[in-house]
Input
Amino acid sequence: MRMVCFLWFFFVAVFSYGQKGFQWESKKDKIVIPFTFVDNLIIIPMEINNTKLNMLLDSGSEPSVLFSFPENDSIQLFNTRKIKISGLGNEEIAEGVFSENNVAKIGEDYVHKGFNVLIILDENLNFSSRIGIPVNGILGYSFFTNHVVKIDYVRKKITLYKDKKVLESNKMKSFTRFPISIVKDRPYLDVKTKLDQKEHHLKLLIDTGLGDGLWLFENDSIKANNKYFNDVLGEGIGGTVFGKKSRLDEIQFSKFKLISPLVSYPDTASYKQLRLINKRNGSIGGGILKRFTIFFDFQDSQVFLKENNLFGEPFNYNMSGLEIHHAGVQWVKDDLERDPSTKNLINVNDIVFDNSNLRYKFTLKPIFEIATIRQDSPAEKAGLLVGDIVLKIDGRNISNFSKQRIDQLLQAEDGKSISIEIERKGVKKKVEFQLKKIL
Output
């Protein structure tokens, strides 16, 4: 699977900021926040100045970021000024607007009255089309600052605790404690890995906003082995992030050992302008974090991990070389048998016309388009092109599929034959290829 979020460890020039984080405004001892989990990313609902938004929760980002606004809605932002920023990608400078002292709410109980946010209105940074659900921005480190945060990836719930005594309860005996370091409002974890039988000690940013499991920066001692392929890793503030995709022999956190995890190595040009902290080697993201139930305690610089039911999942990737994303919606006509009891039926997002013995149902359904194709991949060799509209996969109309279901079809077993029907410039075409395991 291609990394669908954009890594947000950027340097913001021109201004400085200080945030006190979210405050507890509830009589409850804990606050439970359900979340949507898509492509190893956590999406939670929140409000900024009374405007409802969907935000990606990213422990590795600060300040928070807005890159789109809700459709048919507006948002008022306070104390704004233009700034210049740098970030991941091959271009060094981008422009944005920085806004201070806004009111952010998660539910009615978790409130930040001095919320700062960076606005970057660049359509290339809006990844709603890549993951298939609306996302307006990124909620950063300030979410974690003041209280213990538990992330349960299996139940898709975040629990905030008012009292840190929860960390002294009996249930914590099954968790393993790890010290972390907080540097410039970002959490770092020291881990041990093995690559080609050589042991490495790494300092990694804990990044819940990274869809991949692991990113490493190549240097004299850390290099991709000979078994890799070049890939588009994602989009950053500075443009497209290219790099290598490979595997480690294993990655180990104390007693936790993950065998043959996927690892991405971004090109040096993608992060050369960033001010990386001393001895930082990369990032650990959702592809690995989702395998644990996690307690974050940033005030005392510690996290607690316990493996969950996802721990033993294999590390899969898209073997087709295709990245398919949403490209809008279209009206699709279905012929239905006449049912007198439903004559003149009109549903939300549906229009039904009555014509003699047939009823024609027109439904708004998503358009799926090929966004990128990996070089030398099975999809490229089959003749598919960026911009092709995907209609069917293995004979099944995908207009009712989620983006995640499509990704699963492209991660099937090595050697599986895939047929794809596409539309190119108004002409339909069917191609076939076999999935090929490289790593």
Summary: The CA atoms of residues 318 and 407 lie 7 Å apart. Helices lie at 128-131, 268-271, 286-289, 378-381, 403-409.
